[in-house]
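QA checklist item 7 of 12: single-chain prediction sanity check.
[x] sequence parsed
[x] length recorded as 97
[x] structure emitted
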Amino acid sequence: MADNLSIQIDHRMTKADVIAKLQGFMDQVIADYAGMVKDLQESWEGNTNTFSFTVMGQSVTGTLEVTDSHIIIQGNNVPFASMVEEAIRYHVKEALS
């Protein structure tokens, strides 16, 4: 089952530092879930990363926005959205450490 996903993660860094640490984030997710996640497309414009990929045969689109105090991830058509939320939080926090 696919749903929309909305995650907000607090941070205490500058936007520039967060963006620098997250620029390879999607590549790491693809590497960690090789075989499940394919066809990654992403582009950063300012403090927003627009992305799309295919997982379990479904096309997922979304954004990752860095604000002064939060990382906001919005995803559309995310399979098992409620189940993957904690994994996404974990990976973002790992990327920031």
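[x] summary fact logged: The helical segments are 15-22, 25-32, 81-96.
[ ] second reviewer sign-off
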